[in-house]
Structures are given as structure tokens and as C-alpha cells.
Amino acid sequence: MIICEAGINHNFDLKLAKEMALQAQDTGADIVKYQTWFRKDWPDLPQFTKPEWESLFNYCDKIGMPWCSTPFDLEAIQFLKSLGMTVWKIPSGMATHERFIRAIKEQKPEKIILSTGMCDINEVYEAFHWLADIQFSVIVLHCTTSYPAKFEEVNLNVLSYNPMVFDGISDHTPGIEVPIAATALGATWIEKHFTLDRNLPGPDQAASLEPAEFKQMVKCIRNIRKAMGSGIKKPTEAELECRDRIRRRMALP
Q1: Helices 121-130 and 98-105: crossing angle, nearest 10°?
Q2: What pTM was estimated for this model as a whole?
Q3: pLDDT of 104-146, one tens digit each?
Q4: 2-246 CATH pick, 3.50.50.60, 3.40.50.1010, 3.40.50.720, 3.20.20.70
């Protein structure tokens, strides 16, 4: 599953937000994701109105692009629930916030995606404990909360050493290398920030991919998934067809 994280890279321009959904669909991503809040303690940050959010998500439905949005307050949780959202995202900044996590859990979603930036492994286990008695899937993503993140800080071996904990990665590095490498390490969920133009203002633009780059990343990830195979060493059907022709046997005396 590849999440195209539009986030707030639309800068609260509704037309741009809709165009991002359309472009995300063209990349081959599985879902486009935004970020929703109605917090009164963030007066310096712009916000969409509820009708504008509804317009955006109705547009996603119209073009057939699956969507979700990360809530950042309790009002946003209730609003997104009213729109029938079934896949929910807990952002890294809320990964240690028990009340917030339990509020999302109460919505009885089909899936919860948990990002774990800034967390140590014990905090990850604690968050998972708050979600432990649920009847839906919990997707845990390794994450390095830095925009953009440095390659030497990504620590991809977290995926190798904790395969029973982490399902994938929410990546903030430049370029497409880390999501591809994560896929080769067994990640089945990839989240990557997306923008129509990295020159636009905004805190996440530098860590985002433009449409052509995102499309290339999706293609590479799909190919890597195909190439992973079963792990059982045996000849393929194509190898069996050419084995007798290619193998040379030494004539013994």
C-alpha cells in the first residue's frame, strides 16, 4: 500500500488540493492523505472550512481516488467520522497521547495507521497496547520526524530487527531511495509526502516528491515487490525451459 501524503502542501488552496488528488491518482498511489484540524490554539495557521473539506473529499470520491485525512483534534475526529472515513492515521506527534489514540479507537475504523516518529520502542509498544483489544488492523510505520530527514538518521534496520512490529515506513528523506530500500526489507506500507511543486511555500515541501518522481517511486516499489518472490531457491519455469540448452556437461573418460 502506497500512501500519497498531500498533507498541507496545498497551502489551503482548495483548487490545488483537488488537483493533488487527481495527480496522486495518476501516480498509481493507493490512497491520498490530507491533514485536518479545527484547533483554536493554532490561530496563525490557515484552515479549510467543513464545507471545503467536504468538497475536497467528495471530489476524491468522484474521481475514484481513495482518501483519508489525519485529524489533529477531537473536533476533526468527529467531523471525519461523519464523512464515513474508515482508514485513520495517528500522526507521530500524537503517538504518545493516550486520550487522542483512544478517541480514534472509539470510531471503530477498519484500519488505523500509526506513525512512530520521535518514539522509542517502548513508546511504540505502549501505543499499541492502547489499541490492543480492537477488531481492526493496526499498521505501524517507522518514521524519522525531520523535514527533510538525513539518510544517516533513517535507521532502516529498525524494519529488519522488528519485523513483527513495523509494517512499513513514513519517509521524509529526499528522493525515492529509502522507500524502495524499505520495500526490499519487507515493508508492505509506504507513506511519502507529495507536492505539485517543491518551490511552493510550506514546511513539508523539501521532503516531498513531485508527480513524475512519485510515479517513478511507485513503479520501482511495485517492481521490487514482484522481485521479492517466495524466498525458496528453485528454478523458475523460464529457467527449466532453457536449462538443458544452457548447461554444459563435461565428458568424462
Answers
A1: 40
A2: 0.94
A3: 999 989 999 999 999 999 999 999 899 887 667 999 999 999 9
A4: 3.20.20.70
